[in-house]
Specification:
By secondary structure, the protein is α+β, with helices and mostly antiparallel strands. It is built from 16 helices and 29 strands. The strands form six sheets. It has an eight-stranded antiparallel beta sheet with strand order 8-7-9-10-21-20-18-19, sandwiched between helices. Strands 1-2-3-4-6-5 form a six-stranded mixed beta sheet. A five-stranded mixed beta sheet has the order 11-12-13-17-16.
């Protein structure tokens, strides 16, 4: 027998089956929301993993195409690596839950979410987020939950709780908020320039709904929850801390970490580490956790100095941004480039433009998301942090950072009708010391303008940090956190936007939630900072988009043809369109409604291709003038090709005003001549005359 629990959530029934499937997992919940079904499981290893100083949590979100009645494309008819949506969903599940596990827990934990059925009215992502919290809460895995997650959309100014896939795609807000029973613990948002006050309203509406979900989860835990298991603590012994402080007093640690040069700080810590390793050479137990002990000593030192003395490691004021610099066009021959530098964080962004046929195709679970016109890719090489390791392609962090910058800029991009291009922005991290995703947003915005993309408004981004004390009122918010403040602080609150409003938010924290005053202050601080960045730095490098795309970017001419004529342009087996492409070197895209895009870099050849297409699709009328090439000579006349796949005939009597005996006396193969259309002959062929071409022509 299994237990079944239900609640009404946003006008639909959320059903949770416990004990029905996956009984060998530590915790399992079969989730139903409408016809969406997701199996959520939580499992943990029996023993801690040796030799690590972090909590090994893995979150998986598995999209099965059978859930929407599709067979995977390609040669290998099974799901491959996780999609970008799956990776981003995994990250959104991970971020609010990770802080709720014990800090000294080192057992491997995997949260797996298997999407088995998708109802377009009930997005599977939100079901997986709630299901992961339920599976973990009812398991025997130590967890200081539950937590709950709600999504909010907005259409015509009205908020929609847990919107459908279509509402999520077409609305002005994509907001995901996770909460504990007391505080907001995670925020993720994409928005169409939502004002700060409206965003706060949406965040706390979601937070209120989360409280109802948490009450529901608590009921489930009370009835079927397991007792949490004991575990081996990996906490650093207090006697080791005491011994370290004897050798390296707090004043010496402060001096080591408080510098604005990352390399100097790392060298100082390396010397301290060597000193302590030598001192504890005989104590293997202490040596095994010495790295973690030094890390925690640094953390306590930095947090104390910031919170009590308002002193930041690089000497900045609490609301001061690091030195900024911006420039454009540093990379030649690309379609657009820009570099943005903030302290020891430096991003170079390169924009590439291409015809719409180059949009990214998406084979996923959301029928509303079948392609992506704007692609933002973020790269984080080891040299950017002074390390050496081989590149293995983008990891989840890189994909997440790229998606955040992409989300930040989508609201200001021109429509396909205004700018018929596929757009790719690539952010190369040259140097990293905090908030490269926000530097990526600034660099990408400038690179788009430099490439001649007519974005509607400028977008900038900045990150705020947080250090908290023993009470909710004991905290300090930091503007523009560097790496050290991110590592040792409690929050990374990233906000991007225009002068009018917010376009994206990503909030990660390491504590059990934020109070409303902290959220409000962080949002206000980020607005103040992004306006400063736009006005004082970005606008001075490039104030508005260039009027035209660059010299090396493809140019696009768009025309509209009768959809019934598409076959004439394409020709049998593509013969006609391929002939146009071969003769002119352009690229041609035709949509089902007859919109034709001619793309190339040579304006003369593009015009020639457009002219050919117009000739092919024109209803031929008597009196029209054409230029044709002689492709065949017969006794009775000559055949001319006046456009790829389009031929007509000049009768021998219409070649010259004087009588001629043989066509070859006047015309030879390959001659290019001007002709006038006489209409169609008895056989339905287009008939031309050379001798009747008007003199003024």
């Amino acid at each position: 027998m299994f237990k079944q629990f239900t609640m009404e959530l946003a006008g639909r029934t959320l059903q949770v089956d416990i004990g029905r499937v996956a009984a060998q997992a530590n915790g399992a919940a079969l989730m139903h929301y409408g016809d969406t079904v997701v199996l959520c499981t939580a499992t943990a290893s029996e023993k801690p993993r040796d030799g690590i100083d972090f909590f090994p949590l893995s979150v998986e979100y598995e999209e099965k195409l059978y859930a929407v009645g599709k067979i995977p494309g390609g040669f290998n008819k099974r799901e491959g690596k996780a999609s970008e949506n799956a990776i981003l969903t995994s990250r959104v599940i991970d971020r609010p839950m990770r802080p709720l596990f014990p800090k000294d827990y080192r057992n491997d934990v995997t949260l797996n979410n298997l999407v088995m059925s998708v109802d377009p009215e009930c997005r599977p992502e939100i079901v997986a987020m709630i299901g992961s919290a339920i599976a973990t809460s009812i398991s025997d895995i130590p967890f200081d939950g539950p937590c709950a997650t709600t999504q909010v959309g907005m259409i015509d100014g009205e908020f929609i709780v847990n919107p459908s896939q279509e509402q999520w795609k077409n609305g002005d807000l994509n907001l995901t908020v996770a909460s504990t029973s007391e505080k907001v613990i995670m925020i993720e948002a994409g928005a169409n320039e939502i004002p700060e006050a409206k965003m706060l309203e949406a965040i706390y509406m979601a937070h209120d709904i989360n409280q109802k979900i948490i009450a529901f989860i608590n009921e489930i835990v009370a009835e079927v929850g397991k007792q949490k298991h004991e575990y081996t603590s990996c906490a650093v012994p207090e006697e080791l801390f005491a011994a370290i402080k004897e050798i390296v007093p707090p004043a010496a640690m402060e001096e080591a970490v408080f510098t604005d040069e990352k390399q100097v700080r790392e060298e100082n810590i390396r010397k301290i580490t060597e000193q302590l390793e030598e001192a504890f050479a005989e104590n293997e137990e202490w040596l095994a956790v010495l790295g973690e002990a030094i890390y925690q000593y640094q953390k306590k030192t930095v947090r104390k100095m910031i919170l009590k003395d308002h002193k930041r490691p690089d000497g900045r004021a609490i609301d001061q941004i690091r030195p900024l610099a911006a420039e454009i066009d540093l990379i030649p021959r690309v379609h657009g480039s820009a570099m943005f530098t903030r302290g020891q964080t430096q991003i170079c962004d390169v924009v590439t433009l291409a015809p719409l046929s180059e949009v990214q195709r998406i084979d996923g679970l959301d029928e509303n998301e079948v392609n992506k016109r704007y692609m933002h890719h973020y790269n984080f090489p080891a040299y950017s942090v002074g390390e050496t390791k081989p590149s293995r392609g983008p990891g989840r962090r890189e994909i997440g950072h790229g998606a955040l910058a992409e989300r930040a800029l989508i609201p200001v991009l021109p429509s396909e009708e205004e700018f018929p291009y596929a757009i790719r922005a690539v952010s190369e991290t040259f140097e990293s010391n905090g908030s490269t995703s926000m530097a990526s947003t600034c660099a990408s915005c400038m690179a788009l303008m430099a490439a001649g993309v007519p974005i509607k408004k400028m977008v900038a981004g900045i990150s705020c940090g947080l250090v908290t004390g023993d009470t909710d009122d004991d905290y300090i918010v930091l503007t523009d956190i560097q790496g050290l403040e991110d590592f040792f602080g409690d929050m990374d609150f990233k906000v991007t936007g225009t002068r009018e409003g917010i376009t994206a938010i990503q909030m990660d924290i390491k504590i059990h939630g934020l109070t409303r005053p902290i959220v409000e202050e962080a949002i206000a601080r980020t607005r103040e900072a992004r306006l400063y960045i736009m006005d004082e730095v970005m606008s001075k490098a490039i104030a508005e988009p260039r009027k035209e795309v660059g010299k090396y970017a493809p140019k696009i001419i768009q025309i509209q043809i009768d959809p019934t004529k598409i076959g004439d342009v394409v020709g049998q087996r593509g013969k006609t369109i391929n002939a146009i492409i071969e003769q002119t070197g352009v690229k041609i895209d035709i949509t089902d409604d007859g919109a034709v895009s001619v793309c190339g870099t040579d304006k003369e050849m593009m015009d020639k291709a457009v002219e050919m297409i117009k000739i092919i699709t024109t209803e031929f009328e008597e009196g029209q003038i054409f230029v044709g090439k002689v492709i065949s000579i017969k006794e009775f006349g000559a055949f001319l090709e006046f456009a790829p796949g389009k031929e007509g005939m000049v009768h021998i009597s219409k070649i010259s005003k004087e009588r001629i005996n043989r066509v070859e006396d006047v015309l030879t193969l390959g001659d290019v001549v001007k002709v006038v259309c006489l209409g169609k002959d008895k056989m339905g062929r287009i008939s031309f005359s050379i001798k009747d071409v008007p003199a003024e022509e």
